[in-house]
Design goal:
Layout: E1 2-6, E2 12-18, E3 23-28, E4 31-36, H1 47-61, E5 68-73, H2 84-88, H3 98-114, E6 122-124, E7 129-131, H4 133-140, E8 143-147, E9 151-153, H5 164-170, H6 176-185, E10 189-190, H7 191-197, E11 202-204, H8 209-221, H9 225-238, H10 243-258, H11 261-271
Parallel strand pairs: 4-5, 5-6, 6-8, 7-9, 8-11
Antiparallel strand pairs: 1-2, 2-3, 3-4, 9-10
Length: 281
C-alpha cells in the first residue's frame, strides 16, 4: 500500500506498508516501524522471527531513505525471549541437538549485533514484558521508550537455563552488580528501575507510549542523516577503546564530518540564526 503523507519534515512523504505473518513493516517518511506480530507466543524469537528481523535489518542497512527505526510488538508483551516449545521440539541427533542450539544462538547473535551496525538509530518500544532474549533485544537497541507497566528480566535461571547470551547486551547497558543480580535471581525489574539503571531512556503512561516513541523518532529523524550515521558508527567503535585511543579516533571522525558540505551549511545557518538548507536528508 502506498500513499502520500505530509510529515514533520515539511514535504509530502511516501508511506509504505509491508506485512507478513511474523513481522510487519511500515515506512512513513524517514521512519520505519517494525512490529513483531506473533502475540500468541508473546512475540517469541522463533527461527521465523529471527529470520524476519534479520531480513529487514539487512534491507535497512542499504536503505538511504530511512533515518530512524522503531521496533515494537503486538499483543500483551513485547517479547518473551526464545521460543522454548520450538527449541524442545528439535530432533535429538547423536549430539543431543547441540549443533541445532549452536546454530540457533549464532543466528540470534547475528541479528542482535546487526542492530548497532545499522546506519539508522533503532528505538525499541517494549511494553508488557521483555524477558530473556526479549530483554536482550531491548538492550541491543540504541534507545528505548517504554510504559510504566512494563517489566524486564533475564529469568532463564528459573528453569535451569542461565541467560548467557542476553547477559552480553545487558551487562553492557547497566551496572554489573545489578546485571548479575538479575541473572542469578531471575527477578524482574520495573520500568522505573530500568530507567534508573540505564536500560531504557524514557518511561511514560501506557496511553502515551506510541506518541512518545514517535516524538523521539521524529526528533532524531530531523537531524542531518549523514552526521547521525557517522556518529552512530563512531559511538560503538570508540566505546570499546582506551581513552587516549578513543580521542584520537573521534578527532579524525569529527575532521571527516567537518568536510561534509551540509555540515558547513549547518554551521553557517547556526551563525546566521536561520534554519539550515541541507542538500541531503
Amino acid at each position: 500500500m502506498f500513499c502520500l503523507r505530509f510529515g514533520a519534515y515539511g514535504a509530502a512523504k511516501q508511506e509504505k506498508t509491508m506485512t507478513s505473518d511474523t513481522l510487519l513493516r511500515n515506512d512513513a517518511g524517514a521512519i520505519a516501524t517494525l512490529t513483531m506480530n506473533t502475540p500468541n507466543t508473546l512475540n517469541a524469537l522463533s527461527e521465523d522471527m529471527l529470520d524476519a528481523l534479520q531480513s529487514q535489518f539487512d534491507s535497512l542497512m542499504q536503505d538511504k531513505t530511512i533515518r530512524v527505526v522503531i521496533l515494537r510488538g503486538t499483543g500483551k508483551a513485547f517479547c518473551a525471549g526464545h521460543n522454548l516449545k520450538e527449541m524442545t521440539a528439535v530432533r535429538q541427533d547423536d549430539d543431543g541437538g547441540k549443533q541445532y542450539f549452536l546454530d540457533l544462538f549464532a543466528k540470534c547473535t547475528k541479528m542482535m549485533t546487526t542492530i548497532p551496525k545499522l546506519p539508522q538509530p533503532v528505538i525499541c518500544q517494549p511494553h508488557g514484558l521483555a524477558t530473556a532474549a526479549g530483554c536482550q533485544l531491548v538492550a541491543s537497541c540504541d534507545m528505548a521508550v517504554t510504559d510504566e507497566q512494563t517489566k524486564f528480566g533475564v529469568n532463564g535461571v528459573n528453569i535451569g537455563l542461565f541467560c548467557s547470551t542476553p547477559m552480553v547486551a545487558l551487562s553492557r547497558n547497566i551496572p554489573r552488580k545489578h546485571a548479575f543480580e538479575m541473572l542469578t535471581t531471575g527477578t524482574f525489574i520495573s520500568a522505573s528501575k530500568a530507567q534508573d539503571l540505564g536500560l531504557v531512556n524514557r518511561v511514560v503512561p501506557p496511553d502515551a507510549l506510541d506518541a512518545a516513541t514517535q516524538e523521539l523518532a521524529e526528533l532524531v529523524a530531523s537531524k542531518l542523516g549523514a552526521a547521525v550515521k557517522i556518529g552512530k558508527q563512531a559511538f560503538y567503535e570508540q566505546i570499546q577503546m582506551p581513552l587516549d585511543q578513543a580521542y584520537d579516533f573521534t578527532g579524525a571522525v569529527m575532521a571527516e564530518n567537518m568536510m561534509l558540505t551540509d555540515t558547513e551549511e549547518g554551521i553557517a545557518a547556526f551563525l546566521e540564526k536561520r534554519p539550515p538548507n541541507w542538500s541531503q536528508t
